Structures are given as structure tokens and as C-alpha cells.
Amino acid sequence: GNSVTQMEGPVTLSEEAFLTINCTYTATGYPSLFWYVQYPGEGLQLLLKATKADDKGSNKGFEATYRKETTSFHLEKGSVQVSDSAVYFCALLNGSGNTGKLIFGQGTTLQVKP
Amino acid sequence: NAGVTQTPKFRVLKTGQSMTLLCAQDMNHEYMYWYRQDPGMGLRLIHYSVGEGTTAKGEVPDGYNVSRLKKQNFLLGLESAAPSQTSVYFCASSSNRGSTEAFFGQGTRLTVV
Question: How confident is the model over A93-114, as pLDDT tens digits?
Fold first, then answer.
């Protein structure tokens, strides 16, 4: 079946440090891949997405590249800010028989200290 | 500019009580979903709907029922609450056109004592 695995957190970084959050997936067919972010006390919101192999999604300084050969979609940012502190979820949407159901990883908490 | 609205935001129930969570979206989306979020487990799909009058089971449907009588509303019911249903519940909606993003509500924090 379809599944998403993220690195365990929490991840604690100092401001301006480089961020990588690993995400790997298992899926049949050709899924679309997403990163969602959840700020404290809020719902999830889309951060970026990629719909086919080798696509790079980017937003707010974050990037992730859809790597079919390694079934990965790692999230990166070159210089994190305190305001990036949140929970990050990797998710996939399987294209076959699509009903819009997202499969989520367990989430990775990021804490950025000044 | 409401998007997806969930009510209530917080609730405490006693074991065995019933309640209904309401989700409303104003984006004319076909698809709607109910997820629960538990520590270390990400979001798990409870039930979903692909259109008015339709519902289907997700990954963890036991103990929950849903209804989609109107396109804009998706109700989640707990007939007899159990402590294992203590969680944060999120509703989401999305268009039925391709790989579009899902929009989430702010969540309902439910505690069953």
C-alpha cells in the first residue's frame, strides 16, 4: 500500500542554519508529492508540491525535488528563521483512481532558536 | 474569505456521550475529508466524500459516522465517545480537478474523559 516516512523529530536549529527534513515514500503508480506546514494552533497549509519525477517545488525559501529513483522528496531551506518553527508533513496523492485522499507522514517538528 | 470552517474548536465529552462536528467550506469543492491527528502518527483519514450524498470509509472509520447532505457541509458524528477518540480532528476539502491542494480547517480538539 501507499505510505510516507519522515525523519523523526524534533529538529532543533539555530537561526540561519541549513535545514533538511527527509521524506521517502512507497506508492503504486505515479503519485503527486506535497509538503504541508502546521503552525502552532492552526490547521495545515500547503507549502509546496511536485506532480512528476524531477519536478522541484519551491515556496518561501523552501525547496523539495521529486526523486523517483530514490522515492524521496526531502525538504530543504538554506537559512531558517524563528518564524519557520512549525510541524512539517510530507504527503502523497496517488494518481490512480484519484479521490483526492492524501497519505501523510508522521510529521517533523522544527524548532528554530534565535 | 472563510475557506474551511470547523465547529466547535474545543469540546470535552464524557465516555458514552455523543456529538457532531461540523465542517463547512465555501469553495464549491467536491471532495471533503475528516482526519484525526495524534502525536507521532501524523494525520489519519477517518471518512471522506467525493460529492453530495456520498461517503466512504478511510483508514480509521470505526466509532465514527458521517453525512454529506449538502455539498458545502460534511458532518462527523461520534455516537458513543470513548477515551481513544481523544484527538485533534481536521476537516479538509479539495477540488476534483487533478492534483490540487487540500484546504484544511483550524481543527477541533476533543477530549473524552
Answer: 875 555 678 899 999 999 999 9
